[in-house]
């Protein structure tokens, strides 16, 4: 199928989105770095992370007309567990932070070196790993992830390890399954089609609705790492691909 010509207004909206985001990031994170260290961890998460990410999601809706719809909220466990999400774009890294508090996230340690953003992110103690040292990365996830879960903190993991463009698959790593088995906490699978609105390979933001689905928690009891990973991977990939198909026609948009 052939994409229709991208309207000029889309370029303007995207440019405006980033200009405001950069200014807000500089002001917000500079302030957070000063006041957040004195706050308790949970309060720090709500003010620093949720304050920032809620702004981004709302600004995205206002400026770029990107909304969202959530399904399967009834599947979210009462007690914190491992949020196990598809990774198509930057959108879900912001959005999922607005949904679960307090929360920590498994990230590549390079993110903490980004001026302002990384410095503020470090205040909420993410699980930072060195992806070049796989064995040590796994040990870090198991040690710090179990500790956080026992403290009542949600743990967010993107099992693909990197953003994967819509329509493609990448083999899931087993770190999340290892953590589930080690801690006894279930995996909460998350599928979505964010790549249709915020593509990984483009700066443009396409108007429309991101659909996100929470699946039924996957209990690790009696399962191997491979079984747990394969069960979650199958549900997440098939559900995300169905959501992508449902929104495919919306990407052939008319000028806004």
TrEMBL record:
Q: Does the keyword Glycoprotein apply?
A: no
SUPFAM superfamilies (alphabetical)? Glycerol-3-phosphate (1)-acyltransferase
Q: Where is the Phospholipid/glycerol acyltransferase domain?
A: 81-195
Q: Which InterPro entries match?
A: Plipid/glycerol_acylTrfase
* Gene Ontology molecular function, alphabetical: 1-acylglycerol-3-phosphate O-acyltransferase activity
* Keyword tRNA processing listed: no
Keywords of this entry: Acyltransferase, Membrane, Transferase, Transmembrane, Transmembrane helix
Q: In which pathway does it act?
A: Lipid metabolism
Q: Sorted alphabetically, which Pfam families does this protein's record hold? A: Acyltransferase
What biological processes does GO assign it? phosphatidic acid biosynthetic process
| Residue stretches spanning the membrane | 15-39
Q: What is this protein called?
A: Acyltransferase
Please spell out the taxonomic lineage of the organism that makes this protein. Answer: Bacteria, Pseudomonadati, Pseudomonadota, Gammaproteobacteria, Oceanospirillales
């Amino acid at each position: 199928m052939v994409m229709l010509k991208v309207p000029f207004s889309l370029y303007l909206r995207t440019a405006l989105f980033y200009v405001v985001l950069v200014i807000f990031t500089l002001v917000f994170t500079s302030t957070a770095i000063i006041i957040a260290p004195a706050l308790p961890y949970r309060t720090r998460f709500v003010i620093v992370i949720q304050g920032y990410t809620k702004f981004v999601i709302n600004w995205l809706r206002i400026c770029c007309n990107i909304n969202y719809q959530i399904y399967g909220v009834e599947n979210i466990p009462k007690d914190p567990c491992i949020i196990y999400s598809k990774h198509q774009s930057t959108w879900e890294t912001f959005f999922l932070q607005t949904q679960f508090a307090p929360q920590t996230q498994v990230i590549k340690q390079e993110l903490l070196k980004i001026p302002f953003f990384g410095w503020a992110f470090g205040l909420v103690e993410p699980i930072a790993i060195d992806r070049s040292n796989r064995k040590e990365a796994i040990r870090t996830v198991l040690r710090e992830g179990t500790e956080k879960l026992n403290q009542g903190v949600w743990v967010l993991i993107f099992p693909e390890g990197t953003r994967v463009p819509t329509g493609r698959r990448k083999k899931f790593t087993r770190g999340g399954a290892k953590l589930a088995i080690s801690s006894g906490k279930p995996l909460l699978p998350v599928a979505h089609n964010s790549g249709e609105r915020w593509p990984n390979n483009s700066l443009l933001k396409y108007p429309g609705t991101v659909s996100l689905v929470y699946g039924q928690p996957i209990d690790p009891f009696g399962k191997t790492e491979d079984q747990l990973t394969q069960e979650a991977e199958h549900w997440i990939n098939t559900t995300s691909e169905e959501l992508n198909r449902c929104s495919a026609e919306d990407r052939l948009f008319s000028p806004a």
